[in-house]
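Lecture notes, unit on protein representations.

Consider one protein chain, 362 amino acids long.
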Amino acid sequence: MTVDERHMQQALQLAANGRGRTSPNPMVGAVITGSDGQVVGTGYHESAGGPHAEIRALRTAGEFAVGGTLYCTLEPCCHRGRTGPCTEEIVAAGIRRVVVSTLDPNPIVQGSGVETLRRHRIVVDVGLHANAARDLNFAFFTWIVKGRPFVIMKVATSLEGCFSRKGHSRTKLTSEMADSHVHGLRAEVDGIAVGSKTVIVDDPLLTARYVSRDRPLTRVVFDRRLRVSPSARLFGTRSAGPIIVVTTEAQCERESDRVRQLRDVGADIEVVPEADDLGWALQKLGKREVTCLVVEGGKSVHHALWRDRYVDRVQMFIAPMRLGVDGEQWLNRDLVMKELATVRVTNLGPDVLVEGDVHWNH
């Protein structure tokens, strides 16, 4: 392993410390070595609106940054947003070389940060551990490039691929260990989405429990027919974050009383076209700075997202049980598996998590 690789790996490890706290900003880490090659400063982006990783590293390095090298997992910004441009402070600190993993996909940056540094005669190398840096910020890259959240389709199934028993009763499949893993994921993402049937049958809270979460969690209900009751338990959790009910303009006109009742209990009604394929709704969520969305059901929502190729990652929790003739099949699990570019298998007590990124969006 080269010296550059070792320092960039450290920067990537630092960046991961911001997991679940930086959205809609990316996770970024930075390491600074002095003119003698020794590490003199480190930092990572801790939260949106706070100092960027480069600035934190420069502050810890102080005068030892002069003539040194900055390793950064993402291209330094050159514009003024919630904070000032990092490139100005890098130049002022006397850094002579910058090593960047990957360019920022944001159109207002996208190479301009590197160009700015080079204009000030700073040597810039780009591409070291680029794939790792992009993988770390899969949600940010999807949101910036496509204008919609990174969509994780999550489902719990039996051994034969059933997600529930037929009828309208809640079916518990997974163990406490798997449930704990799910709540850990909820602590990191921006939003959870379900269909109206899931709310009617399961009456879920859709909150992140048993874990620490510093930001509001957006909950989304796809409800074209406005079937969700204002008395659903979900609406008693408004302190956890926004609750968005996605429906159509025509249904709002037909069910004006239900719209009023839902708004009275804190729902934010998001209207989409009648013939929408969920793309419009995802774009609207993107404008709300929802960069990563876990869709937990039900089957019709999963089918629509899969059919129209909006699914970026699949998470299948498989429980060691069979539902037999009473079971209701989820999507064709074998066909879903064939579309995964990468597959990871994790044992969670008695359950197994099969997780993979979908090749067409990977």
